[in-house]
Each structure stands twice: as C-alpha cells, then as structure tokens.
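Changelog note: in this version the structure field was regenerated for every chain. One regenerated record is shown below for reference.
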Amino acid sequence: MLYERILVPFDGSKFAKKALDEAIKIAQNTDSVLYLCTVITVSSVIPPGSLMGLVKNKTAKEIHAKLLKSAKAEVERTLNYQASIYCKSKGVKAYYKIIVNGNIAEEILKTAKQKLIDLIVIGSQGLHGISKIKTLGSVSRRVSELADCAVLIVR
C-alpha cells in the first residue's frame, strides 16, 4: 500500500524521535507528506503549588496562562524545527499542528481523520512513559486500537 499522508504524534521523547525517523524513511520511499502534531494538556502545565492550594485562584490562573503560553511557544519552536529544518534536510515535506487541551489519544485520532491520514507512526511510549517498564504506552495503545488507518508503533 502506498502511503500519501503520515501522521507523527511528537512530544519530544526519545520514542517520538525514533518514530519521526522511521516516518521519514517511509516518506522518502513513498513520496509521502508528514504531519506532526503535539497535544498540550492543561494538566501538564499546572503549577505544582496550585494543586495544593498554596496560591490564590487569580494568581493560579495567571500562572497557568503564562505557563500555557510558554509551553505553546516551546512546542512551536520544536515542531517548526522538526518540520521546516530536520524533515526538509531529509527531503521530506512536513507540516505541523499544535493542539491545546483534550484527550491526547482522541486528539491524535481526530487529527488523523481531519487530515485523511493513511498511516500513523507513533512512539511506544511518550514523555510520561516509564522506560524500565516495557509495556505499551496508554496513548499508543489507544491509538492503535481505535485508528481507522494503519498504525506503526516504534520502540
């Protein structure tokens, strides 16, 4: 089967980087276009003190907004580099999308449907995975179970 559109969920983990490298190899051989996506979840940018009620609600909201803005800027830099420089240097056309909030697996699946993706190449674990436990990450497992297209899980 010829893959025309490949989605690579990218969180910056070593598994995501391996998945991107594998997707690039496939894209080079099939003349595919890559779509990278990152889902920024609210829980990943909540300041620890606000969880214990150590900061006032207004202050917590302000801190949260600043942290979210900072996280989005960092993700923008990372994905822009991966798509515009790294993939391009390998001769592969790549685009990216940043998604704020939502269930990570569901947002990946939604993006796959919206972009008419033929193949999802995903790391077996993400930033939240525990590398010593060799089990499939919850996001990659859910994506592989529910995707309408082929899924390649890279370890």
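Spot check on this record: DSSP finds five helices and five strands in the chain. The first helix runs from residue 14 to 30.
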